[in-house]
Amino acid sequence: xxxxxxxxxxxxxxxxxxxxxxxxxxxxxxxxxxxxxxxxxxxxxxxxxxxxxxxxxxxxxxxxxxxxxxxxxxxxxxxxxxxxxxxxxxxxxxxxxxxxxxxxxxxxxxxxxxxxxxxxxxxxxxxxxxxxxxxxxxxxxxxxxxxxxxxxxxxxxxxxxxxxxxxxxxxxxxxxxxxxxxxxxxxxxxxxxxxxxxxxxxxxxxxxxxxxxxxxxxxxxxxxxxxxxxxxxxxxxxxxxxxxxxxxxxxxxxxxxxxxxxxxxxxxxxxxxxxxxxxxxxxxxxxxxxxxxxxxxxxxxxxxxxxxxxxxxxxxxxxxxxxxxxxxxxxxxxxxxxxxxxxxxxxxxxxxxxxxxxxxxxxxxxxxx
Length: 369
Ligand SMILES: Nc1ncnc2c1ncn2[C@@H]1O[C@H](COP(=O)(O)OP(=O)(O)OP(=O)(O)O)[C@@H](O)[C@H]1O
Known about the structure:
The chain is α+β, with helices and mostly antiparallel strands. It folds into two domains: 4-232, 3-Layer(aba) Sandwich (Rossmann fold), CATH 3.40.50; 237-354, CATH 2.40.50.140. 23% of the residues lie in helices and 33% in strands. The strands form four sheets. Strands 6-7-8-3-9-10 form a six-stranded mixed beta sheet, sandwiched between helices. Strands 13-12-11-14-19 form a five-stranded antiparallel beta sheet, with no helix packed on it. α2 (92-102) packs parallel to α4 (136-148). The longest helix has 18 residues, at 166-183. The two termini are 30 Å apart. It binds adenosine-5'-triphosphate (ATP). Adenosine-5'-triphosphate (ATP) is lined by residues 13, 18, 36, 38-44.
């Protein structure tokens, strides 16, 4: 199925500009997830694509068709919202059939399409029920069914799972993934949930104040965030950060010292050549720390344990104070109590460096796992 492109989009509300010269593309069959803090423009972007808002300037194409001057119904997009927006007086089958009946399909074509969608979505036994007689997950499936039957060129989802409880969300997330694998329809999906973004996306577009902060695969954005903002947006507990400076960097490697505890770290070479003394932020994910010193890891830091929280399969260990503080996510119980001192290690490739402007210092490409 064709993808979509937004080129050089400007959009202001009153005198407040939200998008300026904004570009985005969605490839054939690609699942693109938009994430970002509240107010960064995710919903507005979906609404622009769907035709519920008009851009001040720029072009929107779905496949090869320019659609930015077409009314919503002629764009070939289907949008599913957080609120399922089902008709309460209609049955499941009638709700799903509605857009097809509006489009003037014959009765037999509508019936065939509705039956097929209900089978695909596990709604075949519920076709005669009304929305009030369905669970949240079933209602959301009906909303998806209503979008699918139109065979749109592009799917838009605005936080479709956020009204569901955690277990149902996880189940529906897998159903989304399976559905996408079957339909391979280009999709733009907005969520606040980083696990949902990671699990579903071919590509994650992280937005910040109407701009794209990073556009990358889930793995790349997690392991090689382009900025501290991107690094901190993903991961729970959040990535550890320590102030530090470059001692010396050349083609053999990068020597970095942390500011307060004075750890000295030898890291792989950078693509850029930062001057000696340049201030940096050293960052490492809590699960990338390890008590094991093997040959793939270097000594990262030694700290006194402040607290240990055990969650069952894993625990979170809080270490050190103030700007020296670290969080370690360990498998099992870690066998520590407050007051113990522990030496932690990390693979050099898992230690990220950011400049004073918050941008990542350029590294060679990510090795494939
Ligand atoms: N119709 C409107 N009139 C005026 N301002 C608007 C309108 N729609 C959106 N905005 C503003 O545009 C910005 C982006 O809003 P948008 O809803 O796209 O953000 P979002 O990233 O989807 O946020 P959230 O995650 O909270 O849903 C916000 O500052 C919002 O106040």
